[in-house]
Write a structure and sequence with these properties.
- By secondary structure, this protein is mostly helical.
- It folds into two domains: 32 residues, no CATH class; 34 residues.
- It is 51% helix and 8% strand.
- A two-stranded antiparallel sheet has the order 1-2.
């Protein structure tokens, strides 16, 4: 069973014994800035929302064809 220990860098978060540092400290240790990490996160989040929007539109189109229900108009 894995054992948890405090992160040696920040001493706030817990990590598994085999890891060097926590998720929060890892970008700083690797030389990445927090802004780079946040920008990457925002990009992934936007892609997720676009995929959700496309899936919803595809479902509404399917529903309109299958059940002869008019599609909702987007304003």
């Amino acid at each position: 069973m894995d054992k948890f220990v405090k992160c040696p860098r920040c001493e706030l978060n817990y990590i598994l014994t085999g890891e060097a540092c926590c998720k929060v400290c890892k970008p700083v240790v690797q030389g990445d800035s927090i802004r780079d990490y946040e920008a990457e996160h925002e990009t992934r989040l936007e892609a997720h929302w676009e995929a959700q929007k496309a899936q919803k539109e595809a479902y509404e189109a399917f529903r309109a064809i299958r059940y002869n229900v008019p599609q909702r108009r987007r304003v």
